[in-house]
Amino acid sequence: MKINTVSLTLFISSSLLTTNLIAEENLADDFFSDLPVITSASRLNQSVLSSPSAVTVIDSAMIQASGFIEIADIFRLVPGFQVAHADGNTFAVINHGDGWEYPNRMQLLIDGRSTYTSALSAIDWNTLGIQIEDIDRIEVVRGPAASAYGANSFAGAINVITKAPELDDKWHVGARYGNEGERRLLLRHSGEYKDLNYRFSAATRDNDGFDNYLDSRDLHDVSLTGRYSHDARNSFFSHFSATSGDAGMPPIDPGNPTSFYNRKRDTNAISAHVRWDHIISDSQEVKLNFYHNFRDEDDMVQSYPLWQLLDLPNPASVPGFLGEPNQTVEAGERTYKSHRSDLELQYNEILDSGLQYVVGFGGRYDSMESEAFFPDKGTVSNTSFRAFSNVQIPLGNKFTANAGGFYEVNRTDEPHFSPRLSLTWHIKETQSLRVGYSKAYRIPSLLEENLDLTVYTETGFPLDAVFKGDAGIEAERVKAFDIGYVGKMQNFPLSWELRAYKEEYDNVIDFYNDEDPGVTDLSGDLTRLGNVTQSQMYGFEGSIMFRPEENSFIRFHFNRGHETGTYIKEINEAPPKPSTDVESLHSAAPRKSYGFLAAKAVDTWQFNLGLYHVGTMEWFDRGDKVDSYTRLDASVIKRVPLTGKNELIFKLGGQNIGNEKYSEFIQDDERELEFDPRYYLSVTYLNF
């Protein structure tokens, strides 16, 4: 790796020296000396000192200093998380490994709206309905969070809190240009009308993806957020967003890239969200939350004539039962329409004794229409109901207990209850030690239960049975135990969060090959979905931060973990049949990862530096085993005050600078996607 470590050390040392001097003058700054109050761990307002789970908090100043331009990349700042660009328009974000291009064990909430899609069984980071500038802070629950948010929070939960419109800039106009075809235009406006505060934004986002790979992106976003204060006890939050555009797609068959042409995916995504907040008294509050998500994607394409698709010498070589030799075959991987509607009621109360609790009920309806995924059914749906509760109990001055549970039932699976217990010892006023245990389930999605992706000829003959789900598939299970140590220095702006953990996964759903599936097609094999993996993960992770000022800080995070386990890779490969090929998990999670982020503000300048390392790990499905990598990011920000409350901001950023290309997700020579050094320049006009 070609990074100038001398320059890096000088930068860090000078930052430490300068920020030490500043710290002596700013110890009274409560905002940066106090540990944050969070809501994501249990739906209760809690200091991180009393949280039942490990939580990482990332604020807007850290996001700006990181230089990241994709929201998914922000999670490189989270201990134990791995982020990969599966291609130019697909991002994978996972916790402790075991991931593929559509990770399905993480919940992502934006102001209380789930973005988890029943169609992909995952998060689509391109259609979140917000811009990175909208984010006020992010709370990341590391580890099972199903006791608070249900089945999709199997490996963790991400809660994105956006800026209140009344606290945002009045006008924000920005443009960004970079290599690899990176282009973005952004318009944001915040204002008020009587008791209504609102924010409108519109953006266009383009890039060319990786070199020599069909993965470009051309997307257009619009969103409107409003907060209406009816009176002192009632307020209403609303958000509407729409994203449309298209993305390039790699060949369906990498070995025969000319088999299908003009690969492109059209995307339309719409979200609507309404929440009523009612304050009953100083200690009681009710929230009623409703959202609806709609997605429409189409990537169906025509093949070359059948005789060319089958690599035959001439049309006469096509067997008669397949039909016309010059027919074309239509195929796709992401063509569907999906709807999700969710309604939830939540009640919070704090008693005079200091005990606080939350109870809630909710229901959800999912439907998905796809002739490509479900040729026999066309449309599949599911209705689920849930009840949950979490409680925080003070046990004298030194201890706090947390308990919670989430009960979930739906039409397609048996009921599941996900509990969590923790006990916290407050060693000092600013330090605590936590012991916690949780058990969680991930209920199979509509796609995993009903998937039947088969390519047919015009005569109805199955040309290729590609993927098949399992109606009898069972819920995944995890048991997790951790010990956490959280604290800060009382007279010095240094804070930390450390955690030792052990996680046991069972019944994990994944793909496996069936060499003799009992279906008649020309390929003779099939990729199935099933409960094929069990694993154990244990390790130590955390973060340490020195922060005397909002925009001047040094932060280090790390994870050291080890995974063991087995998975079924293939069945019916050789006689006697049925036979099963069971393999060991060696590197599905990196043994070591760490990151460093430093920022230094000097007058109207800000200098930022990030260093990230991920050890060797293996991605499943389309991914490969990729080598370890270390990348260096840097950015410089210059603010130019104008007349009145106006300002210009120039930002020059670089990612993986001074380094060779590296692979994040795919390392096979024929499909190699390497992350080049990337640079961009952005110009922003603000009126505040």
TrEMBL record:
Residues 1-23 form the signal peptide. It holds the Pfam family Plug. It comes from the Bacteria. GO terms for molecular function: siderophore uptake transmembrane transporter activity. Its main location: membrane. GO terms for cellular component: cell outer membrane. It is a multi-pass membrane protein. This is TonB-dependent receptor. It comes from Methylophaga thiooxydans. The lineage of its organism: Bacteria, Pseudomonadati, Pseudomonadota, Gammaproteobacteria, Thiotrichales.
